[in-house]
Amino acid sequence: SQTIHQWPATLVQPVGSPLSLECTVEGTSNPNLYWYRQAAGRGLQLLFYSVGIGQISSEVPQNLSASRPQDRQFILSSKKLLLSDSGFYLCTWGDSYEQYFGPGTRLTVT
Amino acid sequence: DQQVKQNSPSLSVQEGRISILNCDYTNSMFDYFLWYKKYPAEGPTFLISISSIKDKNEDGRFTVFLNKSAKHLSLHIVPSQPGDSAVYFCAAGGSGGYQKVTFGTGTKLQVIP
Q1: Above 70 in pLDDT, residue A96?
Q2: What is the spatial distance between Cα A109 and Cα A64, in angstroms, rounded to a whole number?
Q3: H or E stretch including B41?
Q4: Which is higher by pLDDT, B51 or A1?
Q5: What is the pLDDT of residues B31-45, one digit of tens each?
Q6: N or C terminus of chain B with fewer C-beta within 10 Å?
Q7: Which residue, A48, A17, A38, A58, is CA-closest to A105?
């Protein structure tokens, strides 16, 4: 069966600091991978998706970036965090239209 | 532009009664619709789906109805149970090589014992 790992589970970072969130998937190969963010009082916003190694598509302009260095690894990064980057970050992989979610990372920018 | 909308941010229902969660969409290219359930501090889990060729799909206590002409779908939970208390997200997918899914803003359901 497929498993998604995300870490860290929670993170508190000051404004202007860098960010690196990692996601790995087990039990599948060449998955479509996605990063979502759920901000307070808002739905799930698609940030990035990837259909293969090195292939990243961005959905919204922001100070975040994503990379896919390996088939089952997806990394979300920022050089300088903003207060508005606070939220719950979810990594998913997609099979047909279904999305299988990881446990999420709660990021608080102070 | 919010292509998938859940206009009710919250809903309270008595245990044993029916819960009806609504969702509207604007993109006529969507051809697959899903509902996800999310508990606090956890990732959403898939609940039920429906393709655009159907108007109803049932799975146990959960039934999803699709009205394509109105671009509206709804999730019915009968009977509602306290464990159903969670945030429910409606999602829609359209034809596209990357199988992109667009989520609504969510409805928080509270089932009162």
Answers
A1: no
A2: 14
A3: none
A4: B51
A5: 889 999 999 878 899
A6: N
A7: A38
